[in-house]
């Protein structure tokens, strides 16, 4: 099986931090995303996190669990975690698993906290 790289970066924008993800989130790459989300949430940079999923081609249950854990941690600190612009394949996973009712899904990274939810 070919190795698929996952690229993850974060940038603070006003009152929230955008974590940009590209590639495939699966058993082999999810630790990279988990590390970045942990750094953002534990680093005191922001408790409002927007995960830009516009370049994510695939996300398995391991990736969804990483996102759920980060959402829980953000809420424990009085914040939240939104998913921005997931591609159709990722949206379908969210819908099939019922996680579309757990996460707030927004159109873009600037819509965080501005009522940009698209559910």
Class per helix and strand makeup: alpha/beta
Global geometry: globular
What would you give as the CATH superfamily? STAS domain
Number of helices: 3
Q: Number of folding domains?
A: 1
**Low-confidence stretches at least 5 residues in length (pLDDT < 50)?**
113-119
What is the C-level CATH assignment?
A: Alpha Beta
Query: What is the terminal-to-terminal distance?
Result: 34 Å
- The overall pLDDT, averaged over residues, is 88
Strand order of the largest sheet: 1-2-3-4-5
- Element-by-element helix/strand order: EEHEHEHE
Assigned CATH architecture: 2-Layer Sandwich
CATH topology heading = Transcription Regulator spoIIAA
Helical fraction equals 25-40%
Largest sheet entry = 5 strands, mixed
- Strand tally, please? 5
What are the salient characteristics of this protein?
119 residues, alpha/beta, Transcription Regulator spoIIAA, five-stranded mixed beta sheet, disordered C terminus
């Amino acid at each position: 099986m070919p190795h698929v790289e996952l690229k993850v970066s974060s940038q603070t924008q006003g009152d929230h931090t955008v974590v940009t993800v590209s590639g495939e989130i699966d058993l082999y790459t999810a630790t990279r995303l988990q590390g970045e989300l942990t750094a953002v949430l534990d680093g005191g940079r922001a408790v409002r996190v927007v995960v830009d999923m516009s370049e994510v081609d695939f996300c398995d249950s391991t990736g969804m669990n990483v996102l759920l854990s980060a959402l829980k941690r953000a809420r424990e600190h009085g914040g939240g975690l939104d998913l921005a612009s997931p591609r159709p394949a990722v949206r379908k996973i969210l819908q099939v698993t019922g996680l579309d009712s757990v996460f707030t899904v927004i159109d873009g990274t600037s819509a965080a906290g501005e009522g940009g939810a698209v559910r």
